[in-house]
Specification:
The structure holds two protein chains of two kinds.
Chain A (H helix, E strand, L loop, with lengths): L3 E4 L2 E4 L5 E7 L5 E7 L5 E9 L2 E4 L6 E3 L9 E3 L8 E8 L9 E2 L3 E5 L1
Parallel strand pairs in A: 2-11
Antiparallel strand pairs in A: 1-3, 3-8, 4-5, 4-9, 5-6, 7-8, 9-10, 9-11
Chain B lengths: L8 E5 L4 E6 L7 E8 L6 E6 L4 E2 L4 E4 L5 E6 L8 E9 L13 E6 L1
Parallel strand pairs in B: 1-9
Antiparallel strand pairs in B: 2-7, 3-4, 3-8, 5-6, 6-7, 8-9
Classes of the chains: A mainly beta, B mainly beta.
Amino acid sequence: DAGITQSPRYKITETGRQVTLMCHQTWSHSYMFWYRQDLGHGLRLIYYSAAADITDKGEVSDGYVVSRSKTENFPLTLESATRSQTSVYFCASRPGQGADSEAFFGQGTRLTVV
Amino acid sequence: DAKTTQPTSMDCAEGRAANLPCNHSTISGNEYVYWYRQIHSQGPQYIIHGLKNNETNEMASLIITEDRKSSTLILPHATLRDTAVYYCIVRVASNQGGKLIFGQGTELSVKP
């Protein structure tokens, strides 16, 4: 199916464990983004990527690692999960060409760290 | 990317127009104004964007002031399904980079 998909949709993990959230898009969009949204707050940018093998930090990147070996995938890894990383995580993508283009968001991954 | 200021919350009666303001007084000449909305627990959804001119699509209208320091998103006939958080974002053109930085947004409640 065309679109942007995140997996898993829900995840519970223990403090100190490594966990990876997956994001896959079928449009071959150049840009991909990871955001987190805490209860009652707006979205904060964690990492973004302009193309395969090009990534850059966002507003709240500490404790997170990303990779982009293929254009369509942009996994987000929490190296050692902490309770403060309990949040809803959204992945997004958009084309890089053209003067203006909209971003498309996944449905989110709800992560709970216990 | 320029920062934006929006009211925290607004109410609107069903069937009436919802006018959501946004201030972006530090916007640069190459920055676009984008609007997204987020319905509870879902991923944000694109609504509309513009550079200088007013824009209209099937979802909404965007009115940008002549000095580009503020804009208004208009939902012409709000329905209960339009209840959501609306985000106003300014950023450079896609081919110049332009990561999306979200503010707090306006929580719009459409009431029967």
